[in-house]
Each structure stands twice: as structure tokens, then as C-alpha cells.
Design brief:
It is a single chain. By secondary structure, the protein is α/β, with parallel strands linked by helices. It folds into 2 domains: about 5-160, Copper amine oxidase-like, N-terminal domain (Copper Amine Oxidase, Chain A, domain 1, 2-Layer Sandwich); about 225-415, Glycosidases (TIM Barrel). Helices cover about 15% and strands about 30% of the residues. It contains 7 helices and 23 strands. The strands form 5 sheets. An 8-stranded mixed barrel has the order 16-17-18-19-20-21-22-23. A 5-stranded antiparallel beta sheet has the order 7-8-9-10-11. A 4-stranded mixed beta sheet has the order 4-3-15-14, with helices on one face. Helix 5 runs parallel beside helix 6. It is elongated and about 70 Å long. The protein starts with about 25 loop residues before the first strand and ends in a 6-residue tail after the last strand.
Length: about 425
């Protein structure tokens, strides 16, 4: 791995940037990781929602990814940013997304879900002598995890961060009683014998722990047709009698990795039986660790073993986002997906791929993923999904609350026609 100092592309605070061009730095002293570093490189402008951000520490490039000063960028969009020196922890709260990162650690937590920051890009504490030490975070990973778009314009030397449009607030029009048209000779209607109005059915008070669904925006502007959850043994015992009254569907983890009984999800059979009992349509997912073709085939066998005697109404999803799969090529990841999906679909099941938006755009790019018979399930924890391709489901938070489930749970929207 190259050292950060040889990859930094930043600017001295006193260096002017020519409009529409990239200026060249003369050599900037930086301090990070307990040492001094000198680098030269191009100067970039930084814009948030079209407004230029001028910070004491400019954007830098690490492993071909930009690091930006966390407070200057994310407080600009109304996020709450905190840094705890004792634990070297950075916390960002933006709309419905809560992120936790650690200095020099590529492990992040997005709404409680552990996620590896790709390409060894880590938050850094960086200082220019005589200035304040700034907490620098990977701009694309953080912004896209929060649902924002990031664009690099090499010609003008600019980085653009843009918030998604908020869903429109629809205020219902007040209902007015129609005013009858006057008649020339009104005839009084006969007085009807009053009848007692039927007693109103008792209304159950809303459970304060029940989740309220947000109004999502899909890429195509369509409204979701169903709302549901995905669960695993991490939710432990679920009160499906309560949950079934709230959700339209569930996606149940059957296990993880190769075909070993020790890697079956401990609550798989229990959750399937409960969904059948309470009439909750369900699908299936398996978390993949495959980094060889043999492991991908074994993962398909794992699913098929557990699906014996089970007929899910929704697809079987292959969860591809583990860091072990970053060491292989896009083409190899495509091979693993094809081996899994071909084997499962040959057994008569609908299949799909699950991954977060960043993986879909950067790692699941082999042409095999354009297979029209594979459904996409997108994870992006935000008020809107900004993925610009077809998708069947959008997982919009990992921190949902549903009455009948202890702790947090993933929440999802289902698009298109209701599943048959």
C-alpha cells in the first residue's frame, strides 16, 4: 500500500484556485499518524448543495478516495457531528441515518449495522502546522450511506456533494360539506324517525413502540406496494402474532456461508413456521462469504437443504457484501452469483441479489448482474433511494422498531405489483 503522503491531493489555505481549472500546490506540510509528511498535488474545490465550502483543511485524496473535514461538510446539511477523543470515535446523525466511525479503522456502523469501508479508506486526524487538527472522513462512503450524491469534476477540480430532494409534504385539503343549490319552491322533507347511531367499535390506543412508516421516494417516483422486515437469529424470539398485524411481508435469513449445519440460522425454522401460521408472505436470504466457485456452490446447497418442504412467496436473495469478497475481481464475484442463482433457480425458486448501494455501484458491476431474472434488493439508509437502476426492494434503515420485536430490525419497501 502506498503511503498517504504520496497520494494526497490538497491545497494550502493561502493558495488561490483559478476558476474552472486545477491549481498546483507547491508543497504542503501535514501531520498525521504521529509523523510529518510533505506532498504536492492538485487543489480541489468543495461544494455542498452548490455552496462552496472553505475550510482550514481542504479535501485530500487517500487511496484514490477523497477525505473531507467532517464538521464543515456535514454540519452544512444540518447533521449533528460529535467526536470523542478517548475512543477516537466520530458520530454523525443525519436525518434517519446514524453513523459511527473510528480513526484509522475501516469498520463503520451505519444504523447499528457493521459495514467495512472499502479500499482501506479510513478516517484520519490531520493537521497543518499552526492550524487546528481536523477529523477527515471518506466523503463518498459517508455521503452515499446518508443518501447524498457525490460527483468529482476533474476538469474544474471540484467535488460536489448534493442532498436528495425531500419527499413532498402533502397537506390534505379540508373537507367541506357541500352547499345545496337553492330551489325556487323548496319542499320540506318529511321528518324521519331518528334512529340510534351504531356504537363505534373500540379503538385500540396506538402502541408507542410501533414503527411509523416514512414516505419514501423511489427512483421511478413509484409508491411502494408493501412494507416489511428482514430478520435473523439476531432478533431472537419474535412475537409474530403482533408483528403479523403490522407488516406485509418478511425476508428470513436461513443461514450464512457454506453448507454446514452449524451455520444454519438458529431461528430459521421457527420464523418460517410462524409466518405460515400467521399468513405473512416471506422470502429468504443467505449471507455469503464465497471467495471461490466451490464455496458459492456450497452456499447454494445450504439454501436448498433448508428450503426442502418450504415454498417462499418472495425470492431467495444472495447477500453479497462481505469484505472477504473484495480481494477477488468483479468478474469472479459475478461467477459466484451466477453459480448460486443458477443452482437455486433450477430448483424452481425466484432469485435475487442483496447489497448496499455502494457495492452495487462499485463491486457488483460484472455484466452478469444485469440478468433480468435476478431481482435487486438495495440497502441505502436514507429518506430516499438514489440508486438509478431497477430494484424490487429497498432496505431503508437497520434501526427500525416494530411492536413484537425486541431491539432494532431492518425495514424495507417492496415496489411493483403485489407479489403473487
Amino acid at each position: 500500500m502506498k503511503r498517504l503522503g504520496s497520494l494526497l491531493l490538497s491545497a494550502a489555505a493561502t493558495l488561490a484556485l483559478l476558476p474552472g481549472s486545477i491549481a498546483q500546490a507547491a508543497g504542503i506540510q501535514l501531520q498525521y499518524d504521529g509523523a510529518d509528511h510533505l506532498y504536492t498535488g492538485n487543489v480541489y474545490n468543495l461544494y455542498v448543495n452548490g455552496a462552496e465550502i472553505r475550510a482550514a483543511m481542504e479535501p485530500i485524496i487517500f487511496n484514490d478516495h477523497a477525505l473531507v473535514p467532517v464538521r464543515e461538510v456535514f454540519e452544512q446539511v444540518g447533521a449533528t457531528v460529535d467526536y470523542t477523543g478517548e475512543t477516537r470515535c466520530v458520530e454523525i446523525q443525519y436525518r434517519n441515518t446514524y453513523m459511527r466511525l473510528y480513526i484509522n479503522d475501516n469498520c463503520a456502523y451505519i444504523n447499528g449495522r457493521k459495514t467495512n469501508i472499502p479500499d482501506d479508506v479510513v478516517p484520519k486526524l490531520i493537521n497543518k502546522p499552526g492550524g487546528l487538527t481536523k477529523t477527515m472522513v471518506p466523503v463518498r462512503f459517508i455521503s452515499e450511506s446518508a443518501g447524498m450524491d457525490v460527483e468529482f469534476d476533474g476538469a474544474s477540480g471540484s467535488i460536489y456533494i448534493t442532498e436528495p430532494d425531500l419527499p413532498p409534504v402533502i397537506t390534505p385539503e379540508p373537507t367541506e360539506e357541500p352547499t345545496p343549490e337553492p330551489t325556487m319552491e323548496p319542499t320540506p322533507a318529511p321528518t324521519a324517525k331518528p334512529t340510534a347511531a351504531p356504537a363505534a367499535a373500540p379503538t385500540e390506543a396506538p402502541d408507542p413502540s410501533a414503527t411509523q412508516k416514512v414516505n419514501p421516494i423511489s427512483y421511478y417516483g413509484a409508491s411502494p406496494t408493501m412494507w416489511g422486515i428482514d430478520v435473523s437469529e439476531h432478533q431472537k424470539k419474535i412475537d409474530w402474532a403482533k408483528v403479523s398485524k403490522q407488516v406485509d411481508f418478511a425476508i428470513i435469513r436461513c443461514g450464512y456461508g457454506s453448507d454446514f449445519k452449524s451455520q444454519d440460522d438458529r431461528y430459521w425454522s421457527t420464523n418460517v413456521a410462524a409466518c405460515k401460521k400467521y399468513g405473512v408472505p416471506f422470502g429468504v436470504y443467505l449471507y455469503s462469504y464465497a471467495d471461490t466457485e466451490e464455496k458459492a456452490a456450497s452456499e447454494a446447497d445450504h439454501v436448498l437443504r433448508l428450503l426442502k418442504g418450504v415454498s417462499p412467496a418472495l425470492p431467495v436473495f444472495y447477500d453479497m457484501e462481505d469484505s472477504s469478497q473484495l480481494k477477488v475481481s468483479d468478474e469472479e464475484r459475478g461467477k459466484y452469483a451466477k453459480i448460486f442463482c443458477d443452482k437455486v433457480s433450477a430448483a424452481g425458486y425466484k432469485v435475487g441479489i442483496y447489497a448496499n448501494k455502494y457495492w452495487w455501484q462499485n463491486y457488483l458491476t460484472d455484466p452478469v448482474f444485469e440478468n433480468d431474472s435476478w431481482y435487486r434488493w438495495i440497502a441505502q439508509y436514507s429518506i430516499s433511494c438514489t440508486y438509478k437502476e431497477d430494484y424490487l426492494m429497498w432496505q431503508y434503515t437497520g434501526d427500525g422498531v416494530v411492536n413484537g420485536i425486541a431491539g432494532s430490525v431492518d425495514l424495507n419497501y417492496f415496489y411493483g405489483s403485489e407479489w403473487n
